[in-house]
Amino acid sequence: MSVGTVLITGGTGYIGSFTTLALLDHGYKVVIVDSLYNSSKVSLDRIELLCGKRPDFYQVDITDEAALDKVFAAHPNIDSVIHFAALKAVGESSEIPLEYYRVNVGGTITLLRCMSKYNVPNIVFSSSATVYGDASQHPGMIPIPEHCPIGPTNPYGRTKSTIELVITDHINAQRNNLKKAGKPYEHWNGALLRYFNPAGSHPSGIMGEDPLGVPFNLLPLLGQVATGQREKLLVFGDDYPSKDGTAIRDYIHVVDLAKGHLAALNHLREKNPGVRAWNLGSGRGSTVFEMINAFSKVVGRPLPYEVVERRAGDVLDLTANPSRANTELGWKTELTLEDACEDLWRWVSNNPQGYRQDPPKELVEAAKAAAKKSA
């Protein structure tokens, strides 16, 4: 039985597709809107293969209010939104900041306007640890708690922190206006999920990250080096004050991350907390060199890299303090960095062309058998 209908923006992307799978597995109905700017419709086939259910899909740009309006009108049962759709490259955001504000902030405003019109009260927002900026400047803020001062160091992070403010103001206004009118107001809620570095793939080996063009994250880049699509990894700086000179990041398996979105959505629907921020991370920091070594170990050979200058907007340490999510959402990471590396290697070694090729038949058969067993 369906526990609700959720609209997922950016639902064919990396984290969006895994969250869609988690929601379908837990009885939700899912409607996806995605422009397919940096994702593939093939992810819908893989979702269906893994869980036996297929989300409704609309190729819609988040900034197109008329098109988005039609989706809400066609699905009057939508009661919640999980919002992923965004441009997401830190480096690129410094080159075309206006486009990042137009899509990320403008698209969110368009979405919230449609939610208001159709009385859809819950939003789970895919924010980012980049909103904290350089937390090491603040004493006692590593690992980073939610009360760490916000101070992003690049346009991408600033779009995320701006969206957090827009959502907060919008939800608070809806609650206050309804309260003044003597009407129920507690059902308007927002989750701001600040997550750290998503990694890994589905353990089946048939679903994973398939960035169009150049990937922006460390592990997919390493995957391309391992499959020979890329000559070497560029390491941005080895002069940080860390144990090996490279930047420290908190890597979270994408399957755990998807479960975090499910936990946040359930919390909004059951507890009506208003607007609340949660860090989704493991609480364990790993340097870039440690990641290269961990993935090289899984692949079975050293992967080539070259150290280059630091990248504008990068910071020393982004490690989460996830205790608020652990306590309030009853959520914590269950999979390890090694799991993420092994699952990623299973994905890229079997699908070097990502969704532009059919996965090996034996993996498909195994996935079908697993889906049948769990049905």
Explain the overall architecture:
Helices cover 42% and strands 16% of the residues. The protein has 375 residues and is α/β, with parallel strands linked by helices. It has one domain: 3-Layer(aba) Sandwich (Rossmann fold). The longest helix is centred in the middle third of the chain and has 26 residues, at 155-180. It starts with a strand and ends with a helix.
Main beta-sheet annotation: 7 strands, parallel
What is the CATH topology descriptor?
Answer: Rossmann fold
Question: Termini separation (Å)?
Answer: 13 Å
Count of strand segments: 13
CATH level-four homologous superfamily name: NAD(P)-binding Rossmann-like Domain
Order of helices and strands: EHEHEHEHHEHEEHEEHEEHEEHHH
CATH class membership? Alpha Beta
The domain tally reads 1
Main sheet: which strands, in order across? Answer: 3-2-1-4-5-6-10
Global Rg = 20 Å
SSE-based structural type: alpha/beta
Beta-strand content estimate: 15-25%
What fraction, in percent, of the residue positions are helical? 40-55%
Shape: globular
Name the poorly predicted regions: none
Helix run count: 12
Q: What's the overall average pLDDT, rounded?
A: 96
Annotated CATH architecture:
3-Layer(aba) Sandwich
Outline:
By secondary structure, this protein is α/β, with parallel strands linked by helices.
Topology:
Elements: E1 5-9, H1 14-25, E2 29-34, H2 42-51, E3 56-59, H3 65-74, E4 78-83, H4 90-95, H5 97-117, E5 122-126, H6 155-180, E6 189-195, E7 197-199, H7 218-226, E8 233-236, E9 248-253, H8 254-271, E10 275-280, E11 285-287, H9 288-299, E12 305-308, E13 317-318, H10 323-329, H11 337-350, H12 361-374
Parallel strand pairs: 1-2, 1-4, 2-3, 4-5, 5-6, 6-10, 7-9, 8-12, 9-13
Antiparallel strand pairs: 9-11
Helix pairs in contact: 1-2, 1-8, 3-5, 5-6, 7-9, 7-11, 9-11
Cofactor: NAD(+)
Region (Disordered): 355-375
Protein name: UDP-glucose 4-epimerase
